[in-house]
Amino acid sequence: MSHIPFLQPAAFTGLSEAFYRYIAPDPLNRPYWVAKNIPLGEQLGFPADNWDEGMLHYLGGSAAHYDPAPFATVYSGHQFGGYTPQLGDGRALLIGESQDAEGNGWEWQLKGAGKTPFSRFADGRAVLRSSIREYLCSEAMHGLGIPTTRALAIVGSDDAVYREQQETAAVVTRIAPSFIRFGHFEYFYHTGQHQYLAPLADFLIERHYPECKQAENPYLALFEAMCERSARLVADWQAVGFTHGVLNTDNMSVLGLTIDYGPFGFMDTFDRRYVPNHSDTGGRYAYNEQPYIVQWNLSRAGSAFLPLCDKEGLVAALDRFPEQYRQAYLKNMRAKLGLLEEKENDSELIADLLELLQGRADFTLFFRYLSEVGNVHDEPLPQRLTGLFAEDAQRPLQLWIGRYRQRLRAENNGHEARRERMNAANPLYVLRNYLAEQAIRLAQAGDYREIERLRECLSEPFTEQPRFADFAGVPPEWASEICLSCSS
Ligand code: AMP
Ligand code: MG
User: Fold this and answer.
1) What is the torsion angle, in degrees rounded to the nearest 10, for the CA atoms of residue 458, residue 459, residue 465 and residue 470?
2) What are phi and psi of 34, to 5 degrees?
3) Contact criterion met (CB below 8 Å) for 95 and 22
4) For residue range 28-71, what is the model confidence (pLDDT) as tens digits?
5) Which residues of the chain have pLDDT under 50?
6) Domain locations along the chain
7) What is the pLDDT of residue 101?
8) Is the dihedral of CA 327, 316, 288, 253 positive or negative?
9) For 45-63, what is the HEC assignment?
């Protein structure tokens, strides 16, 4: 009997076997818990006292028996602009599906549980370092209210894994309504197996986009919905200063979820050219490129929809993307500024603010502290805010604040209520690279407590939590030296 009795066979296996291959996990030796997300477990129907040895082995790939049978799905994708015919699932196994109290299905995936037939060269493993980053960032994103896959647990082992240096292995349990990527469509399109495109789209519509059924062409409606969700997603990332780092089409969810956390980064000091992934030397996936890249990725997914719909419809959907993105971004930024009305000059006010912040001030803390600025013309600014800027930036700061205050007064925006709204829109805590790095270094020395502290803090990033005051400041000097590569 399975250690997760409520885990059902995933509906995905109702699709033809062209989509997946059953495969047994490759067990981690002498597994141990690195992280248990007990609140998420409870949400999924897994009681706190069930995190026993059996569960440890089940999620570490070393259970004697898996029921339902785990499987890997097949996808391809465009990596850094070029097409790669087969990419995954290289090291992720889907172990089944649960239902929450509202009747929503959740797929469970073990990442790092061994090779699959779709990973011909790599080792099928994930290292502890990247598993901790994926676990923490999934939960941080969810705390921020940004669509994302979730993370339930990390199981570690002393098994050696070789990257730039020798590291140890871990398995993350990921949870999502679906792990289907743009790359799943691309695979069947580019291999000429077009007969599988409609069943894949039907599966998605039935389970995740039922509203598309009413459309004249449900497949076009599905693609339009993918465009809309992707526009909102990237607008959400921009508003929190998040850069994904590897926005290949195989790392794009058809549900508009943030997926595949690798060399991502939340900016400290604002830098529109921010590139967290040190292997991305051309800056293809820089912060300010993300909206364009997401649209390009949608165009790649759109090609795979050509056998299903008219080209004109697909092109029109792609053409609407920039405006959808712009609207979503403006909405997010107005919320960050605490504005109530939409005014024509808002884009300019925001662009000039970013110019002021560029290379000068901490992105997260600037917006958080801005909520303390009153509306009165010459009232002195809070020291916490001015303290984010060097001497030579004080005058530009004052000038921008002057315009902001004018804008606030023009719509009778009261300070008290604005402060509350702004604090609900601007996190105090984000997963800064150095915070993840601190938790990783401790974990590599066998102390996992910082992971849980961070997860707990980041699950409520908008609420000031005095016990986590150490997570709320500007980063230390050494933060700028952290080097992130693609290796994971
Ligand atoms: P990424 O750019 O990290 O998303 O990697 C692209 C694809 O390569 C992933 O979807 C995986 O299927 C596969 N992959 C990455 N690392 C490994 C690994 N260590 N073993 C097997 N497959 C891997
Ligand atoms: Mg990936």
Assistant:
1) -20
2) -105, -40
3) no
4) 999 999 999 999 999 999 888 889 999 999 999 999 999 999 99
5) none
6) 11-182, 341-412
7) 86
8) positive
9) CCCHHHCCHHHHHHHCCCC
DSSP conformational letter for 117: T
Amino acid present at 320: R
Residue 375: the pLDDT is 94
What's the Cα-to-Cα distance from 458 to each of 136, 149, 240, 266, rounded to whole Å?
8, 15, 13, 13
B/e letters for 134-160, b = 16+ CB within 10 Å, e = fewer, are bbbbbbbbbbbebbbbbbbbbbbbebe
The residue count of the chain comes to: 488
DSSP state of 33: E
Counting ligand 1 atoms within 8 A of each CB, the residue from 91, 133, 280 with the most, and so the one to mutate, is 91
pLDDT score recorded for residue 1: 53
Rounded distance from Cα 210 to ligand 2 centre (Å): 27
CA 340 to ligand 2 center in whole angstroms: 39
| CA dihedral (247, 251, 257, 260) positive or negative | negative
| Predicted model pTM | 0.98
Cβ–Cβ under 8 Å, residues 234 and 327? no
Q: Is the CB of 119 under 6 A from ligand 1?
A: yes
Asked whether 176 and 137 are in contact (CB, 8 A), the reply is no
Residue 89 Cβ inside 6 Å of ligand 1? The answer reads yes
Ligand 1 touching residue 124 (CB < 6 A): yes
C-alpha of residue 89 to centroid of ligand 2, in Å:
8
With CA atoms as reference, report the closest residue to 309 among 231, 227, 225, 218: 218
Q: Which two tokens stand for residue 170?
A: 């871990």
Q: Residue 258: name the closest of 99, 422, 144 by CA.
A: 144
Backbone angles phi, psi at 389, to 5 degrees: -115, 145
Within 44-127, residue ranges assigned H as helices are 53-59
**What DSSP string describes 358-392?**
TTTSBHHHHHHHHTT--SSTTPPPPHHHHTTS-GG
CA distance to 176, 221, 225, 252, 301, per residue, from 314 (Å): 27, 9, 11, 18, 10
Using CA of residue 423, residue 426, residue 427, residue 428, what is the dihedral sign?
Answer: negative
